[in-house]
Amino acid sequence: MSKLYLKPNTILEPLLWNWHAWSHLMSPLTASMHIKNRHLRIMQRFVETGSKPQVKNQKFEGGPVVQLDGSFARDVERLLNKTLDECQDLIALAEGIEDASQKVLEPAGKTLEPLYDSLQPAVKGLLELVYNLDFQPGLKFYESLVWQDYYSTQPQAIALSQIHSDRRPFILGTPVLSTADNLVLPLPFASSIIDDIQRSTQHGIERQTLLDQLQLDPSQLDSLLRFFSTEPIATRHKRYDGEGVRVRYYGHACLLIESKDTAILIDPLISYDYPAEIERFTYSDLPDQIDYVLITHAHQDHFSIETLLKIRHRVKNIVVPRNNRGDLVDPSLKRILQHMGFANVIELEEMDQVPLPHGEITAIPFIGEHAELDIQTKLVYNVRLHGRSYFAGADLNNFDGDVYRRSFRKLGEIEVVFIGMECDGGPIHWLYGPLITRGYDKEATRSRTLSGSDCAKASALIESIGAKHAYVYSMGEEPWLNYIMNINYSPEALQIIESDRFIRQNQQNGLHSRRLFGKDEWLFS
Q: What are the b/e assignments for 482-501, b being 16+ CB within 10 Å?
């Protein structure tokens, strides 16, 4: 018998309808709206124009533009027609949602009961028409019924490819097509075969076992085997066995907090292993067992389905915020993860705690960064281990410092703080546009952005906590994140100016402070 080892620069990219899978494509409600109002429009525009003037222009890469040249127009047209054919039920669901969202405006505060008979068939029995206490009408969905009737693993697939540099097409604008460079396998995300393949990087998999599990066409064999080696891949991780705590920065908002008893990974989004100028920790630096993964919110740079499937076989528990149940804009991460094959998903609300050996995880309110939408799937976390606290603040926008003064009142001193300062974020329609069901004034909503804290807000947080270490992270500067974020700051960018000011102030006040980039490590005894 001969063993095969997955090469460490092999991507297993999860696909839904040939698009990179992220949280809004997993939930049938949000998926229906993105298919109708994003995917179809992007593909139709590309087929009609080829987008030739834009695909090579970097400023368009983070928008709804296909980063392919005109030679792919026929392939995109075939995908467009396939989507129109195979997603008729989801397109009808989106149309039903939009129709219901308009209908509830008509009674103007009177009872909504007469509207039920006029709802479109695709949404009948899946929602309740409701008012809030200010007499504003809305839709409340029965998520379990929506998933029961509309969720399918049929469109799920895994695309194997190799990465040799930090450039990948932006996920919200470009579908993944079958080419000579990849191999697209029709695998449900919950399949244990994915774990066997991912595990094989270190432990190997018998060649015949792999072939039997995948049941490939013989013509695909060579295409598959190029992603594997016959030699084992060395792991670089050495489990921390000191008396204190080791913290490692993996890029963006990803932190690994380790004691000799516990390994906690926050917002995993990790580089693959390939030669690169910028030093980084990769999957090869992860421990064999991760006791807790903590997810702060559902944005694709913090909840990466690709990364989570890559590490699923290592993860014992995954912690997520509880959602605003039944709300279109706020799908349940617990439900998504369960359909991805995660067995132990823990939902938390503000100030809930998870006990640890020699400490605990505390869920803290996460304010801002969601364009003032009523989204509850967001928490930041304080991890207390061996007498010290490490606060991962993600992209919180500290416009109400009283929230954190109250939150930390019972937690005591917080010594180490990580905070994002992407303080000039995108507009509401950049991410949530496909879900908006009623007309709105883009100019009027320009102030409602996906922004984190500026210097004044971040400084107020640090002052209220009394931290000794204050590090800026979650800035999206690492080049291997371009396919998720596509951020290219200039020295004059507001985010750089504000974070530089924050760091200078901290250093003048005697704090350890810097903006993180690439990789970093701390030992706290």
A: bbbbbbebeeebebbbbbeb
**How does pLDDT run across 198-249, given as a tens digit for each residue?**
999 999 999 999 999 999 888 888 999 999 999 888 777 788 999 999 999 9
Q: Torsions phi, psi of 18, nearest 5? A: 70, 20
* C-beta separation of 263 from 291 below 8 A: yes
Does residue 371 form part of some domain?
yes
Instruction: Enumerate the β-bridge partners of residue 127.
Output: 141
CA dist list (Å): 512 to 150, 321, 414, 505, 522 = 51, 30, 14, 11, 11
Hey, which residues does 282 pair with through a beta bridge? 271
Domain boundary among 127, 150, 173: 150
Per the structure, how many domains does the chain have? 2
- Digit-coded pLDDT (tens) for 69-95: 888 999 999 999 999 999 999 999 999
Domain containing residue 417: CATH number: 3.60.15.10
Supply φ then ψ for residue 42, to 5 degrees.
-60, -45
Burial class (CB in 10 A: 0-12, 13-18, 19+), 358: middle
DSSP E strands in 213-358: the ranges are: 228-229, 245-251, 254-258, 263-266, 290-294, 315-321, 345-348, 353-356
Is 107 domain-assigned? yes
**Is 77:47 a contact under the CB 8 Å cutoff?**
yes
Q: What are phi and psi of 4, to 5 degrees?
A: -120, 145
Could you tell me the residue range of the domain that residue 42 belongs to? 8-150
pLDDT at residue 51 greater than cutoff 60: no
Question: Which residue type is seen at 334?
Answer: K
Flag whether 214 is in a domain. no
How high is the pLDDT of residue 447? Answer: 86
Question: Last residue of some domain: 150, 185, 214?
Answer: 150
Per the domain annotation, does 482 fall within a domain?
Answer: yes
Q: State the DSSP code for 166.
A: S
Same domain, 141 and 269: no
Spatial distance between the Cα atoms of 276 and 322, rounded to a whole number of angstroms: 38
Q: Are residues 304 and 438 in the same domain?
A: yes
